[in-house]
Amino acid sequence: GAGVSQTPSNKVTEKGKYVELRCDPISGHTALxxxxxxxxxxxxxxxxxxxxxxxxxxxxPNDRFFAVRPEGSVSTLKIQRTERGDSAVYLCASSxxxxxxxxxxxxGTRLTVV
Amino acid sequence: xxxxxEDPQALSIQEGENATMNCSYKTSINNLQWYRQNSxxxxxxxxxxxxxxREKHSGRLRVTLDTSKKSSSLLITASxxxxxxxxxxxxxxxxxxxGNLIFGKGTKLSVKP
Lengths: 114, 113
What we know:
The complex is a heterodimer of chains A (about 110) and B (about 110).
Chain A: E1 5-7, E2 10-13, E3 19-24, E4 31-37, E5 44-50, E6 53-56, E7 65-68, E8 75-79, E9 88-95, E10 104-105, E11 109-113
Parallel strand pairs in A: 2-11
Antiparallel strand pairs in A: 1-3, 3-8, 4-5, 4-9, 5-6, 7-8, 9-10, 9-11
Chain B: E1 5-7, E2 10-14, E3 19-24, E4 29-37, E5 43-50, E6 55-58, E7 61-66, E8 71-76, E9 85-93, E10 102-103, E11 107-112
Parallel strand pairs in B: 2-11
Antiparallel strand pairs in B: 1-3, 3-8, 4-5, 4-9, 6-7, 7-8, 9-10, 9-11
């Protein structure tokens, strides 16, 4: 597609529920990234994929968070047993390579845990 | 953890004036990037400057990088109301994960018509 597409754009869920956030990167972009942004803060790294594999998942806050990219294109960020502190905007980005090029970000998914 | 720190946190100027935002970071880097964000949603990549470059231009944007001081500045000349947004610097640290950009907290720029 023309840009990075994230769905849903907004998600409200109850504490303890499971959620999935989807990212559809730019066609041909091998690198895909997930970031999380809280109000008034800059984005914080969660995980990045090179192709199908997670090259770095050091930013995932705990084992309730998991992400997959089974065919090297679309990625899903999964959050189990959501907590109110998980409320944030989840941003996905993609790029042709990880070095020397800027990232193209999607519009994000605003997750609210009530 | 956030290694970049932008200053000022907020900046308000009149249309036509220049806006300068600064960024400081802590560790040695491969490159530094600047992004713009409107309304707290998707970020737009503005410019990337490599660690061996000192200055770069793109349209009304001018970015400088001083690796000895671990700092960068973003200058927007002849600002427009449409430049109103938050601006973030982001770095990838040498020795760190190549896919892990570290963002600062951003500068909120307001350009009044």
